[in-house]
Amino acid sequence: MSLHISFKLSRSDLEHFGKVMVRAREKAKGISQQDIIDSAETLLAEVNRSDAADFIRDRMSQLETMIAMLVDKGWGLIEEDREHVLAALSYFSEPEDLIPDDIPALGFLDDAIMIEIACKELEHEIQAYREFVIFRASESDRRGKDPKELQKSDWLEERRQQLHSRMRRRRKGYRADRQSKSPFSLF
């Protein structure tokens, strides 16, 4: 038997989490980027060793993606985006979080909620990174290359070619449709 529990965070709840995140960022200013990443990786390891709920484990996979965005040399985050991701991870470098991690069944709940909030903020960056990872895997197979050889620039070039191709197909369809209605065309 399973039980589905759902809850909604109010504006004041989100403001509270926002204040907690601001405090964590302030405390993390003296911590190196690598230490922030290491803290997030430590949390992942702790959750993997625990009997955490599926909800929490699902959020941890999102945390894993955020860490990968930072360490993946092929992705090469620009500094502004890198700072956003590091700011999101700064909460996990704070040893005293809202709910102590050693509380059975609930210890990682605050971490999961913070990951969910961070993922909403980084939604577009995370989606782009996931698309890049898929591209890199498929292209490395197709090209017979090591995936590490493929860079963000390769992905962007492929995306550019796809957009141009789609634009040409649409233009041809538009012309065919216009010719059946009017013989006039500027091109």
What do you see in this structure?
The structure is a single chain. The protein has a domain at 11-122. It has helices at 11-28, 33-49, 54-71, 79-89, 109-121, 123-143, 152-181. The chain has 187 residues and is mostly helical. Helix 2 (33-49) runs antiparallel to helix 3 (54-71), helix 3 (54-71) packs antiparallel against helix 4 (79-89) and helix 3 (54-71) crosses helix 5 (109-121). It is built from seven helices and no strands. 68% of the residues lie in helices and 0% in strands.
Question: Approximately what portion of the residues adopt beta-strand conformation?
Answer: under 5%
What summary fits the major beta sheet? Answer: none
Mean pLDDT: 85
Proportion in helices: 55-70%
Structural class designation: mainly alpha
How many beta-strand segments? 0
N-to-C CA distance = 65 Å
Tags for this entry?
single chain, elongated, 187 residues, mainly alpha
